């Protein structure tokens, strides 16, 4: 599952992308928080991370605030997930950017756990790397593309 922090980052990027499409002024953090539903104090840290990563910029002054400086179609969801939550791989031996050999592994080539998780991770990474903030803007019901079973209440 993605963390609340990542969810807030994606929602903030969507708000900024919508604002960029309208060619409006930069948005104050209060406006982003209100539109995205993210708590302001939490959002401050997230926006700083996004700014350091070069996805958003900030302006000072009366019309100051934050603005998306990258094209929404060039901000991949994988990039945001990695920035906020770290490596995406379910096992350290599968990570491309944070590879580490598993301490208890004798042979990666014959490891059944790595083989099974590697298969679904390869599919997941192909999909998540192809999705962008622009996809979030365009498709308000992407879950309908997939045939997921109805959720079952956990006891």
Describe the structure.
The chain has 155 residues and is mainly alpha-helical. The protein has one domain: Winged helix-like DNA-binding domain superfamily/Winged helix DNA-binding domain (Arc Repressor Mutant, subunit A), CATH 1.10.10. Helices cover 47% and strands 5% of the residues. Strands 1-2 form a two-stranded antiparallel ribbon. Helix 1 (4-21) packs across helix 2.
State the gist of this model.
By secondary structure, this protein is mostly helical.
What's the SSE blueprint?
Layout lengths: L3 H18 L7 H8 L3 H13 L3 E4 L5 E4 L8 H9 L26 H19 L2 H6 L17
Antiparallel strand pairs: 1-2
Helix pairs in contact: 1-2, 1-3, 1-4
């Amino acid at each position: 599952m993605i963390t609340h922090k990542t969810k807030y980052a994606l929602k903030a990027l969507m708000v900024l992308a919508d604002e960029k499409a309208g060619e409006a002024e930069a948005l104050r953090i209060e406006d982003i928080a209100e539109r995205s539903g993210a708590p302001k104090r939490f959002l401050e840290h997230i926006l700083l991370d996004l700014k350091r990563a070069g996805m958003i910029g900030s302006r000072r002054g009366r019309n100051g605030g934050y603005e998306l400086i990258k094209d929404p179609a060039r901000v991949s969801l994988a990039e945001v997930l990695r920035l906020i939550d770290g490596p995406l791989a379910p096992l350290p031996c599968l990570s491309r950017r944070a590879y580490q050999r598993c301490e208890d592994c004798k042979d990666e080539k014959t490891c059944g756990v790595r083989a099974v998780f590697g298969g679904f991770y390869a599919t997941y990474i192909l999909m998540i790397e192809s999705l962008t903030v622009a996809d979030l803007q365009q498709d308000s019901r992407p879950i309908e593309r997939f045939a997921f079973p109805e959720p079952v209440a956990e006891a």
